[in-house]
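Protein modeling request. Please complete all fields; requests missing the sequence field cannot be processed.
Requester role: graduate student
Desired output: 3D structure, token encoding
Chains: 1
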Amino acid sequence: MSQAQTTAVFSSISDVERDTGIPKETLRVWERRYNFPQPQRDANGERLYPLDQVARLRVVKRLLDMGYRPGKIMHLDTEELSSMASKSGTGTIAADADDPVLRQCLVMIKAHQMHELRQKMAQSLLQLGLRRFVLELVAPLTTLVGETWAAGGLAIFEEHLFAELLQSVMRNAIFAANQQTGQIDAAPRILLTTVPQERHGLGLLMAEALFALEGAHCVSLGVQTPLADIVEAARVQRADIVALSFSSVMSPRAAVDNVGELQNRLGESVQVWAGGSCAALARRQLGPNRVLDLHDIDAAVARWRAQNSALSA
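Delivered output (313 residues):
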């Protein structure tokens, strides 16, 4: 097997971990316990995963996020797993897929019509305004793209093209929102980032846009910031709140552990808020006021201001 062939049709264990969200050690355990995945080996003995196995692992991860146990699903093939995933969905994705605007955007992504998609997004932003744009288009479209990718309907590079385009659109919209509201003396002061295990940042951008609309002062560190650096940045930036985003790649237990550890390091003067699909699963452990849906942001900021104005009165 040539190096070119290996690169073209196989993924390393690091690639699989990054693209599916399944840790390397878990992949090794499954290999021993369930005889799947079944990687090949390169000349140095390193694992190489065929693309069909990576696609199957994506659907396995999706079902695990829905609450299935590995022992119940690891023996199933990709078609059976995909059927289970579609039947086990909440209904939100199916309804979104029928939305003509979302469907049009998804068609553009599959056709690699990124210029046309950018124009569509810009037009929708003007028509809807930033809040509705985030809640009614960006959030459901991001979910739909992720689900389509997980089901094998989009290639990794197509999902990346969409993510890069959306980041550009959102950053421009956030800049414009900050210019309108002004940030010098704005409060609360919010530091946005993700923990080292979380590499997905679109949720951060959506949250930052909505915080900006509420007149908050936002500073984003991007993704995968070590906890010690988050603490130091919060001190330097005089943050009132640290907002973390957790996608479905993270487990609810990891979200709880990271939020708890960070809150302990920051002390009571700085609140830690969490959002994203993983954090929602951990709402009971974290507490309802600490876990935010995008729709909750305006009320949460208002509540923080009311509490802090009462304390300073």
